[in-house]
Specification:
InterPro entries: 6-PGluconate_DH-like_C_sf, 6PGD_dom2, 6PGDH_C, 6PGDH_Gnd/GntZ, 6PGDH_NADP-bd, 6PGdom_BS, NAD(P)-bd_dom_sf, Pgluconate_DH
EC number: 1.1.1.44
CATH architecture of the largest domain: Orthogonal Bundle
Structural class: alpha/beta
Strand content: 5-15%
Strand order of the largest sheet: 1-4-3-2-5-6-7-8
Number of domains: 3
Family: Belongs to the 6-phosphogluconate dehydrogenase family.
Subunit structure: Homodimer.
Bound molecules: 6-phosphogluconic acid
GO molecular function, one term: NADP binding
Length: 483
Amino acid sequence: MTIDNTEGARAQIGVTGLAVMGSNIARNFARHGHTVALHNRSIAKTDALIEEHGSEGDFVRTETIEEFVGALQKPRRVLIMVKAGDPTDAVIEELAAAMEPGDIIIDGGNALYTDTIRREASLRERGLHFVGAGISGGEEGALNGPSIMPGGPKESYAALGPLLESIAAQVDGTPCCTHIGPDGSGHFVKMVHNGIEYADMQLIGEAYNLLGSALGYDAGKIADVFTEWNGGDLESYLVEITAEVLRQNDAKTGKPLVDVIVDAAEQKGTGRWTVKSALDLGVPVTGIAEAVFARALSGSRDQRKAAVGLASGQLADKPTDAAQFTEDIRQALYASKVVAYAQGFDQIAAGSAEYDWDLHPADLATIWRGGCIIRARFLNRIKDAYDENPKLPSLILAPYFRDAIETAIDSWRRVVSTATLLGIPVPAFASSLSYYDALRAERLPAALTQGQRDFFGAHTYERVDADGKFHTLWSGDRSEVQA
Ligand code: 6PG
């Protein structure tokens, strides 16, 4: 029902920016019994929402920002769902001018976390609360229950949390929404979520490519494999939709749709941000980085076209035991996925330390169990692992994952070596396995790197048998001195 705006400040929440995500979230609030004030730059979208979905709950139609702000109960809560970047700053400025100290502005877009840190600091000076909230789940999640990652001041969560928790996905009676931490932490965590999403998608893509190129399976048969996998440890939203995409036939040609889609993956940028931030924090997120680079390589269409036909060398014969190789791929996918999550959680720990956020990995695993794009059965295992030991040095070291990798390791090696001998690219499978081998190695060639650095730049090194820093007089008598 539409509530006349002359009835005064009635709405519990306002949503501005009524493209699909914004309007679906507004409808989700209304369906949960909240009165929602609506605002959009052009009134046509507001009217369309009310026309098509007005019966779902109580909406207040507003045209100007002043009218919109005036329709809200105090403390006023406004969710901004506009394009990340300059449009967000413009809307924040307009809102801030019309709001009062204690009011709360929530940015639900995929904002860069450093922008959120800046915005939070500047609005805090004006007495306003700014909450950067990561929202995952796409259009469907926005309407039926997303995973929500709100950062910002803890006090604002008291007024905001119950509202957000009411519209979030629920798993075992627990909402997929919790206060993440101060300022930009919500958007930081959402960024890493997206990085993991990229890695997950790339790994699934490599498995699909192996099933097709090494075993000769067509899209329908590969769909059946993914459906079967979805009944086990790999159960997840992304594996489920993979089967659906692969099973879709193109109406125009009758071929599997996937076979007529151009093989150049695009990106809006959150995966790239994850890797940039990981570089700054010094955290090796190799699986995520390979996924971002794989998208970039796929998109270099001219270069790829020019390179078709380059030498492959002598290729091995295809595997003869299809059932065994399929199982090997399943195991490799699972183990590589563990690595991607382990690296993502390492980045979250590093971000938390860098910005003093005091983030709790078990909380994140809990709210990623439902609603979001990376929702998966094994997030329960991640939650258990961090519940048991919040200071786990790496997810890979948790007993459950340690055992899972021990079970998978032979398959994983067979997949990477077979793919290499067949000339099939597996950048994420291979780099995840190399990461694992490097992590468990007693000695790394970094000792040589240190020696080289000392040789050309007198950068010094540490010794295994003495404290302090040392330098060899490389251009002198090559004796060692303490630095
Ligand atoms: C989500 C998604 C969502 C969006 C991605 C797509 O969690 O709901 O991650 O945020 O679909 O940003 O990202 P790319 O366009 O970069 O693949």
